[in-house]
Amino acid sequence: MNLFLTLAFLFCIGSVLGWGLEVIFRRFFSAHHWVNPGFLVGPYLPLYGSSLCVLYLLAMLEPLMPGDSPWLKKILLFAATASSTRCRSAAASAPWLPTRPSSRTPASSSITPC
Asked: Contact 22/37 with Cβ under 8 angstroms?
């Protein structure tokens, strides 16, 4: 129960702080006007909250990592964190989903429907 409450707290804090940072970034550096970057109604982005929870869970694995050297453990933890963050950002961008409807019409094909 304690782990669940910790993860819920981290999810809420990460979602709200991530939303705030992205709003500030878009206002002053990207779009130069106020933009709500989220797809939900409210000041939170679940991507940042879930990423913070994954990073917290990965950090809990440090005592279980092999090796006696603390530097080796830090490097392995960094590699695991970097790969999980890369996978989460790649899943968030979802390159296979269309960003807009295609205006191209298919060329005439020789395949006839059944």
From this structure: yes
